Amino acid sequence: MNRRDALTTVALAGAAIAAASGPAKADAPASTLDRIKKNGVLRVAVIVGQEPYFHKDLATNEWSGACIDMAKDIAGKLGAKLETLESTWGNQILDLQADKVDLAFAVNPTPERALVIDFSTPILVHSFTVITKKGFAKPQTWAELNKPEVKIAVDIGSTHETIARRYCPKATILGFKNRDEAILAVATGRADCNVSLAVLSVSTLKKNPNLGDLAIPRPLLTLPTNMGIRAESDRRYKDFLSAWADYNRSMGQTREWMLKGFEAVGLTADDLPAEVQF
């Protein structure tokens, strides 16, 4: 081997070692928990018109609701201030993946979502219900809705859509950008009914009692609702949120936050069907 070949070999070997070692550890992105503590900010997805979870005062642009109270409590324990990003049920998962928010509330842990994000332990367990338009017979079972002539309005990308397509595959499923548009479809007669979580349906009918009627078809379908976070190898943030969820649920604090959210739309515990669990 001549001198030029030897120098070339040494240079290639050095490049290979550098490539194998990868970037310096200091350049590695911080975990969510580290970043929240460093920046002093907790970014949370919020959704318009989803009482008791979220309520936006259109005059002041101030947010309130059960999930806002929860988010403030979490932020306080992390020594951070709360920032909100307006989203939808369907988009908040994308917002997590895009690193626009650090936390999404009221996320149902489906297997498909578990492939792209992570979850805390449950905050609550909810039942799925149906809001029917005036004059439409209240269904006693999901099978009664599973007919081509039945039009079901749902918000695209939500678990409401998943339930409708799973239990009423023969029905005509009408997808809308958000739940407000799906509810409007029922109000205007474009759809016969809307599938929603019980807490959302009860709140909607309280605000607009002339919209229709509440039905809780059988079999009773329940699903836990959790906090969604980005998937990462550092488990501290997930473990913290899970401990927070378990503690507040067992101590009855979660129930108090939910009842406070319901009170904002004129509902009390006595107004809620037995199937509404929290």
TrEMBL record:
The signal peptide stretch is 1-26
Listed CDD domains? PBP2_AA_binding_like_3
Pfam families assigned to the protein according to its UniProt record, in alphabetical order: SBP_bac_3 (PF00497)
- Gene3D superfamilies under this entry? Periplasmic binding protein-like II (3.40.190.10)
Spell out the InterPro entries in the cross-references.
Solute-binding_3/MltF_N (IPR001638), TAT_signal (IPR006311)
Q: Does the keyword Cell inner membrane apply?
A: no
Q: Which UniProt keywords apply?
A: Signal
Solute-binding protein family 3/N-terminal domain: which residues? Answer: 41-265
Name of the molecule in the record: Polar amino acid transport system substrate-binding protein
**Which species?**
Bradyrhizobium japonicum
